[in-house]
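Sequence only, no structure available. Ideas?
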Amino acid sequence: MIEQFEHYITKNIRSFYQRKLWFPITVLVILCALCFFYPVRSLIFPSLIPGNQVQTENRYDLEFLYNHNQKYVEVTLENLYFTGYRKDWLGKTDGYYYYTLRDDDCLIVLLDPESCQQGISTIDEITIDAEILKNAATEDRLLEHLAEDLSWSKAGIVANFSSYMLSEPDCNDLITNLLRWFIILSVLFSSLGIVLYLLFIAFPVLSPPVQRLRGYGKRPGAMLAEAEEELATLPQLATEDMFITEHYFIEVSSFGVAIVPISEIIWIYKYSTLHKLLWHHFSISYTLHITAKHRRYIRCPKNIKSDIDGIIDYLSEANHDILVGFSEDNRQKVEEIQGDTAILRKILAFLSKRV
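Reply:
I predicted one. Tokens follow.
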């Protein structure tokens, strides 16, 4: 047994998913770090503020919440009165300004048109998700207009209004909702990725490269064990990241791991890529393309020509049914073998009957 290749496939599956594990971990670490500087947590889980009658507690104070990165809140407000002003954006009404008493201060509240029924005069009670804004420019202009309407000085009216306001549209606009869902989905997919990658590291037989063998007759675990045994005992052909054993083609690279029974391969060809910067040509790399039964497609990129030629020659000798080289004739034959055209014929027949 060649010690270098003992459990070689399993080790590389573990190594591949260990490398992939860093990305979701990095995403979660970045999101956790952002929570210390931006109101990420309250964006997802708004702080709950009950009705006006219990606002004496410090944790419900708007200034306290704002200074502790809890700018997004779910709040219950009572006795709101329409100011007569609204906020327009690009010719569309974005919200209506109301005021209410809270902690002996007048508080400005900007409501969505749907929440206030397009600006009804009074609202007895309403529960909204809103963003806490401090010294907002729109609030400043609103107070100027209110001071003119009431024949007050601006300083006098500012003294009676809180420097903080609540804005429902700012909490539910398109950008905020996209950011909210981006964070939620990032956390979900990162957490799921970490769980799956750890599972594949602990049990490589459950990983996709092994489970894709399920359609080839034997149990995936048995085929993995057979491929490991053949590779460790006597590989027929070996390059830097591609191997051929008695019954299997194996790819083990930084791009992934692939195991394919040679008897299931139906088409192989190579594709060249010219690497250049501006007018300077650096090198040419070659990609081996393998098509196997059950619509299995494998790409082995960034290889040298001699390695790929050796793989193609050996596979074509090991399985004389393999189609070699890219051509339109071979592509059509593969479609026939895999039944791709049969599916299209059924779809076209169904559509023609409908028509």
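The radius of gyration is 33 Å.
Hope that gets you unstuck.
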